[in-house]
Write a structure and sequence with these properties.
The chain has 171 residues and is of the alpha/beta class. The chain has one domain (2-163): 3-Layer(aba) Sandwich (Rossmann fold). It contains five helices and six strands; from the N terminus they run H-E-H-E-H-E-H-E-E-H-E. It has a four-stranded parallel sheet with strand order 2-1-3-4, with helices on both faces. It has a two-stranded antiparallel ribbon with strand order 5-6. The longest helix is centred in the first third of the chain and has 16 residues, at 32-47. It is globular. 39% of the residues are buried.
């Protein structure tokens, strides 16, 4: 459930006290799930009375490199931010690397959260907070979709949960 997950991610950052929250992964994309995540982020920011800061990524690069490039560009331009919602964990990995390379402490100076629940996020420094889909439920829904032969199948949303790891902290 991309919408619920993006809502959880943005709200977690707000609840931690972050206020200048960038969303890296915005822009024109064929990835419907990314578009849903960005639009929900925008809505949550508006509901909270905060300014949305959508940051596009450069196409043609691996996701982690997109994260590194986006955060480096933000820093070079003097963009003010205190947290990043990366639309996928791989972009989040690049964001963490880019912040570390710039000497910016996570989560002390900037909080970072991703989306996808990739196990590799447990081993980043610090461990990447993320939104994790219920993979067992996703598998069951996939089987249902394959077995359901009706032409008008409903959208099946996979439940998600917040994994608050070391890349975010209360401020």
């Amino acid at each position: 459930d991309n919408q619920q997950g993006a809502r959880m991610a943005a709200q977690h950052l707000i609840d931690c006290g972050y206020r200048k929250i960038a969303c890296i992964g915005a822009g024109e994309t064929r990835q419907r799930q990314f578009a849903e995540r960005v639009e929900t982020y925008r809505a949550v920011m508006e509901e909270a009375g905060l300014k949305a800061l959508p940051i596009p990524v450069e196409e043609g690069f691996e996701r982690d490199e997109q994260g590194r490039r986006a955060i480096a560009e933000m820093i070079a331009q003097g963009q003010e931010f205190d947290a990043v919602f990366a639309v996928c964990d791989a972009i989040g990995f690049g964001v963490l690397e880019g912040l570390r390379a710039a000497g910016i402490s996570v989560p002390d100076n900037v909080g970072v959260i991703g989306f996808d629940g990739l196990q590799a996020g447990e081993h980043t420094s610090p461990p990447l907070a993320t939104i994790e889909p219920d993979f067992a439920s996703a598998g069951a829904k996939l089987v249902e979709a394959v077995l359901d032969q009706s032409p008008d199948q409903p959208t099946r949303r996979v439940p998600v949960r917040l994994l608050a790891r070391g890349s975010t902290a209360k401020h």
